[in-house]
Design brief:
Distance between the termini of chain A: 18 Å
Radius of gyration of chain B: 19 Å
Number of strands of chain A: 0
Oligomer: heterodimer
Shape of chain B: elongated
Shape of chain A: rod-shaped
Largest sheet of chain A: none
Number of helices of chain A: 1
Number of helices of chain B: 4
Structural class of chain A: mainly alpha
Chain lengths: 14, 257
């Protein structure tokens, strides 16, 4: 869950 | 009341100089455990995480958790007015809208104070999950900076490939292609030249050199830097600040479309 939240912040990169 | 006195004041200058081109405005969070900052860069491709523990300060007082929004550009201008050997003291009232920086020369014969207006910056503060990385490479910070600089004259991206033999940085562009391989040498006579690779499994990821170069502005803060990688996860570029904490950068890999 926390990992998903964290990755979501890099939304511009993906 | 928040008050923190840092004997090695130039550490704060180095930290701000390392992040001010990546992040324009950011919240510094103060709590009894220390002084931290966590912010995405302006394009939301990388994350900066600073943590300075309270026990690293000569004096640290934080009666109530507080968040101080600052323009990093203005903060850098103020810190430029500090002498390299000055003691820096930060002070802010609990419900104040300014923060004061006091610079004292080592001989205490020159004292100056600068007041910076605080800003309201809304930023969601999310936990950074612990990751068990496939590979962690620790190399001299100057070496990392040089590799990033050299390769950015070749291409825009770098493939970092960690294997048991070493770590290879590859880049290609109109100029041509370049490969720089750094091998593990834990027996290097001088500690500051040591390179170590903690490998669970080989991993290769592609990153934009622009950001890796920007992270290298933190080189003055530490003798070594660690790159921790795991497939499809952001790389963690970690500068340990002796006796105080760390300045970490996270950069999302380019996913091969």
């Amino acid at each position: 869950k926390q990992a998903q939240e964290f990755l979501k912040r890099f939304y511009n990169a993906y | 009341m928040f008050e923190a006195r840092l004997v090695q004041g130039n550490l704060l200058k180095k930290v701000v100089d390392a992040v001010k081109d990546l992040v324009t405005d950011a919240n510094f969070d103060c709590s009894s455990s220390g002084f931290t900052l966590q912010a995405m860069d302006n394009s939301h491709v990388s994350l900066v995480s600073l943590s300075l523990r309270s026990d690293g300060f000569e004096h640290f007082r934080c009666d109530r958790n507080m968040s101080m929004g600052m323009s990093l550009g203005n903060l850098a201008k103020i810190l430029k007015c500090a002498g390299n050997d000055d003691i820096v003291t930060m002070k802010a009232a609990d419900d104040g809208d300014t923060v004061t920086f006091m610079f004292e020369s080592p001989k205490e014969d020159r004292v100056s104070d600068f007041e910076l207006k605080l800003m309201d910056i809304d930023s969601e503060h999310l936990g950074i999950p612990d990751t068990d990385y496939a590979a962690t490479v620790t190399l001299p910070a100057a070496e990392y900076q040089r590799i990033c600089r050299d390769l950015s004259s070749i291409g825009d991206t770098v493939v970092i490939s960690a294997t048991k033999d070493g770590v290879k940085f590859s880049s290609s562009g109109d100029v041509g292609t370049a490969n720089i391989t750094v091998r593990q040498n834990t027996t290097a006579d001088k500690k500051e030249e040591q390179v170590s690779i903690d490998l669970k499994e080989p991993v290769a990821l592609t990153f934009a050199l622009r950001y890796l170069n920007s992270f290298a502005k933190a080189t003055p803060l530490a003798s070594h830097v660690s790159l921790s990688m795991a497939r499809d996860l952001p790389v963690m570029v970690d500068y340990q600040i002796s006796d105080m904490g760390h300045l970490r950068f996270y950069l999302a890999p380019k996913i091969e479309d």
